[in-house]
Design a protein that fits this description.
alpha/beta, 332 residues, five-stranded mixed β-sheet, 16 helices, 11% strand
Amino acid sequence: MERHKSPGVIAASVDLATGSGAEIAFGCNLCGLCTVLCPKGLSPSAMFRELRVLAVEKGVADLSPYRGLLAYEDMGRWNLFTLFLPPQKACNAVFFPGCALPGSRPRQTLALFRLLRQILPGLGAAVSCCFKPSLDLGLVSRFDQRYGHLKDRLRECGAREVVTACPSCHRVFADLGDFGVKTAWEALAEAGTLEPERLSARVTIHDPCPLRHEQGVHQAVRRLAAAAGLSETPMQSRGEHTLCCGQGGAAHLASPETAGRFTRRRTEEAGKRLILTYCAGCADHLSSHAPTVHLLDALFPPTAGLRPRRASRVPLASYANRLRFKRWLANL
């Protein structure tokens, strides 16, 4: 909106008959901060979502920048990468880690599942994509078909509740309401099973924008961080007012300059402090700009201490990690 003026001006520039002008919406991060701040109680981000749908329906959307992202989503539904382990005993919940977390931290994701199983005996698991990229890009028919198949698979294996570790997956399941949903962080914080104060470091916490309204999750993460021995120096923009890391809504692929401004603002607020987040996508993106760790790096550190790391620049590494995680899960 800093580039294109008010939402009203943007809306007035769109031709609803042809979709002309609707493509501007692909530069929005869909992070929802505008909705929080709007003095009129409007939701500009919801309008931008609808404009994306319109652009796709009218055939004016240029989807070429998203080929890699959509190919990544495609692979997430292949049998090679998917696994559905039904819940056992009286449990009706499944762990849904998403794609990015096992793709970047397979061992720690497995450790998280094992710990969750102690809290929720009989917990099942579902390794698949939530198909949020299609939803964010306005590909409604594609999303409906793929999510519908996922929903059927989850119900067939007896799932009534989904335990998420990815903010984007959580947003999909929470918004559609087909299953009960809670984050792994809430489950861990409620159980209080972590060993206290294993680390000693000061961090600043980046709340992922899909969870900006989930105050219970914000509190759970901070309880877990404190239990791990971490002290927080809060950023100004946090919780409901958190900033997007820059990759929300795949805007970085259509409007890298605008997305880059979000990233710069986020890292400037963090200063020189170590950033802790609970989104694998945010962690991997921000790690290229500032020292950043994922919450799992603190809960299940491979060695003593908390060490930032850069995301792998080898795309195949993510696929290999996901296959490794699936194999480990199947052999539990």
